[in-house]
Specification:
This protein is an alpha+beta fold and 295 residues long. It has helices at residues 33-41, 79-91, 187-195, 233-245, 288-291; strands at residues 8-14, 17-23, 49-54, 63-69, 74-75, 103-108, 111-117, 122-126, 152-153, 161-162, 165-168, 172-177, 205-213, 216-223, 227-228, 252-257, 260-266, 272-277, 279-285. The protein folds into two domains: 8-127 and 279-287, Diaminopimelate Epimerase, Chain A, domain 1; 152-270, Diaminopimelate Epimerase, Chain A, domain 1 (Roll). The mean pLDDT is 97. Bound molecules: 2,6-diaminopimelic acid.
Amino acid sequence: MSPLDHRRFLKMNGLGNEIVVLDLRGTAIRVRPGEARAIAADPASRFDQMMVLHDPATPGTDAFVRIYNTDGTEAGACGNGTRCVAWAMLEDPAMARPAPEGRLTLETRAGLVAVARVSDVDFTVDMGAPRLRWDEIPLREPFPDTRRIELQVGPIDDPVLHSPGAVGMGNPHAVFFVARDPATYDLARIGPLLEAHPIFPDRANISLAQVLDRHHIRLRVWERGAGLTRACGTAACAALVAAARLRMTGREAVVTLPGGDLAIAWGEDDHVRMTGPTELEHEGTFAPALLAGAA
Ligand SMILES: N[C@H](CCC[C@H](N)C(=O)O)C(=O)O
């Protein structure tokens, strides 16, 4: 038996980034990695990230959120999932609590994020300040300048990809700037190699970014622990930060992912804010057979 048997969940998405929201507030239950993998493998609860609500740990916050990838590992941040959590905590009959003016403060392993509602389904998440020092991203070895780190794929004299920007957004990101449409690269093949490259001690989310103009980036992402996804909010933030640091864009841009557009702004206060939609697909409960034997 699993303590998750018959527990209710919401299947949502943020720009096609598949999200399950599970409320474990008021319990001491912790999702185990094998349970997360089993839930992700079931078509009814398939996710790129599962956002699990726990009781707040820090006074003044509304919930502590654990974020699970498809492979059962945990992440410190998930932009698209955070918007889905905010929607659930304001609108779902079983999860909602009164929240003045549609504002919430959520805590993850990486720190606090503030969410504000901008319409019925759209939310702005303050993802905090980007972490740009090599040891906070983290990278394996000292790089005084993380705007372009030494890393390449393909022949030494004619690399397919090279010199990504490295950015921490509560999770590690490498952003390769490319001249062609990111869809023309074989990211499903290159992604897993780079995700696990020794230069990233905690592995990394790998993005290909094409700067279309100073306010528009096209992006495709291979996510750590989850693979190719239709959208990744933290990667969109990392791409804007990496591009702005190289003066390829200004500090605000629309980032177009396979699932649609996110608006990203890197404020003068150093905080990165991401605005985008949420969608509820269906709700369900975990069948005991699904979790039997999962650990
Ligand atoms: N899809 C998420 C990011 C998940 C990151 C996760 N793959 C990791 O860092 O391990 C987002 O919207 O930001």
